[in-house]
């Protein structure tokens, strides 16, 4: 039995055990994956400069275009994201489900759609495991660049607003790449507010001693299927400990946010786990 067949049978068995109808199966496959939600979060820390107070950071992740998610859906998503008028846009990995199988015209259409996104502080992205998978590394890099996104692969940039600065860093994918947090932060000012993008949330334990305030991740899809009294049905490697929402890790501490993401993978279901994108609003404590 393949892993896909096992998960599908397990999903069906759990639904049967808790007495859910065929209508619920239809809902999980055809309705909930389209119920996009916006989450609004506040990041309040003492080292956020006054100039960055109320800056809106838009995070979206795991679109998995090509697996039950098409360009018209992606186009509608980008229209909605643009309507929020973010100051900074971050994509935390997995644009296509299988990049090496995507026709040229779909790649071009995706880049054209991405190019419509606009944010005064920039548009940045990191690799996810599907971006590297299937020899997709260079393909995705090319078309994300065409879409106006800057790759952060074990590197950082300094974002400036008025006379103040913060640090934005990104890691290579932890499953199929070679993440290196020390390289990513080399030369960065450790006293600045530092935001790190890393696709896999469980990798945070390798980041714990670095001068990072917030890690933004995706990858988990929130489990895609959550069963009452049972929990997450399946989560991928490196998303076993941290699956969705906020966590605080270590004595520093680093705060971790895990997005449920937009699309699906392996199986086209979502149940009690609606797709999401997130607006993180920075708040300077000196303005309270």
TrEMBL record:
Cellular component GO terms, alphabetical: membrane
SUPFAM superfamilies in the record: Metallo-dependent phosphatases
Record's keyword terms, sorted: Hydrolase, Metal-binding
Pfam families cross-referenced by the UniProt entry: Metallophos (PF00149)
Stretches of the chain forming a coiled coil according to its record: none
Keyword Magnesium: no
Family statement drawn from the similarity comment of this UniProt entry: Belongs to the metallophosphoesterase superfamily.
Designated name of the protein: Metallophosphoesterase
Taxonomic placement: Bacteria, Bacillati, Bacillota, Bacilli, Bacillales
